[in-house]
Design goal:
The longest helix has 19 residues, at 215-233. The strands form two sheets. The chain has an eight-stranded parallel beta barrel with strand order 2-4-5-6-7-8-9-10, surrounded by five helices. A two-stranded parallel ribbon has the order 1-3. The chain is of the alpha/beta class and 288 residues long. The protein has twelve helices and ten strands. The structure holds 2-phosphoglycolic acid. Residues 22, 202, 207-208, 246-249, 267-271 line the site of 2-phosphoglycolic acid (PGA). The site of 2-phosphoglycolic acid (PGA) has 13 residues, from strand 10.
Length: 288
């Protein structure tokens, strides 16, 4: 199925591709562990560098309740564990929240922050909700920044999601939106902290819709994001930060997206729930 090729190390740039699977609210108990084991097994057959190192970093981000089981399932496989959100306080009277120390304690290395579904930036509400003021979870740039700082304090590597809605794109505001989101979350951080951050460019209109952003346009916006990073932290730091694309990534479109010079990986939703498809996306990253 996947060829056993040894990749020469010098073919890869400074930034190792990074594929993260965002399972969203999917994966219950044993079923989640089985899927995680399948993914780990499929990925273990992928090509490696001549020194045995993996040419691509991989993480799975299951729901909170499956973190322990999935962590156990991928243990020793090289697949990292990530959470989908966290609260910025470490403990206290915050009913329903999950903190950085809690994520660390179950083995998380990554945490997705500012996902559009948490920012309440869904294009439409659930069909049974008619009150238009209701938004999912309601993260703001300011709360995303608080969470990001808390994640760094606990040595969790954040995957910071940014991206425009369809309305913002149609109004010609895409670049401004991602610029503001990047600055709001990362302003004031030092190089050492920024080096652990990954950014996921996820146009809201492309998430879960099958309407993938054209590869060239995704590349252009990722370059805009790198420009914003350069302004914040200088060229050297900006050059080290990985920028993923997310939004209807599939085994069929991954290679074209990942071949773009400004795209360093993918944040994969629906297709990360299928071991075969996810492994193919990881393989495309390994070859990119
Ligand atoms: P999708 O989701 O791949 O199902 O579009 C991506 C995401 O929301 O991170």
């Amino acid at each position: 199925m996947i060829k056993d090729v040894v990749l020469p190390r010098e073919e890869k740039g400074l930034r190792k591709p990074f594929i993260a699977g965002n399972w969203k609210m999917n994966g219950v108990g044993e079923e989640a562990e089985v899927l995680a084991r399948q993914i780990a097994a499929q990925i273990s057959g992928l090509p490696a560098f001549s020194d045995g190192a993996s040419p691509v970093d991989v993480a799975i981000c299951p729901p909170f309740t499956s973190l322990v089981g999935v962590g156990r399932a991928v243990s020793g496989s090289g697949v990292k564990l990530g959470a989908q959100d966290m609260f910025w306080r470490d403990s206290g009277a915050y009913t329903g929240r999950v903190s950085g120390p809690m994520l660390k304690a179950v083995g998380c290395q990554h945490v997705i922050l500012g996902h559009s579904e948490c920012r309440g930036r869904f294009g439409k509400l659930e069909s049974d909700i008619t009150d238009e003021t209701i938004r999912h979870f309601g993260d703001l740039d300011a709360t995303v920044a608080l969470k990001l700082h808390a994640a760094l304090r606990h040595e969790l590597s954040p995957i910071l999601c940014v991206g425009e809605t369809l309305g913002e794109r149609e109004a010609g505001n895409t670049d401004q939106v991602v610029y503001i989101q990047v600055h709001a979350a990362l302003h004031g951080l030092g190089a050492a902290q920024l080096n652990t951050v990954t950014i996921a460019y996820e146009p809201v209109w492309a998430i879960g819709t099958g309407q993938t952003c054209e590869a060239e346009e995704a590349n252009r916006v990722c370059a805009v994001i790198r420009g914003a990073l350069e302004q914040l932290a200088g060229g050297e730091v900006a050059g080290n930060i990985r920028i993923q694309y997310g939004g209807s990534v599939t085994a069929d479109n991954a290679a074209e997206l990942l071949a773009q010079p400004a795209i360093d990986g993918a944040l994969v939703g629906g297709q990360s729930l299928k071991a075969d498809a996810f492994a193919k996306i990881v393989n495309a990253a390994a070859q990119s």
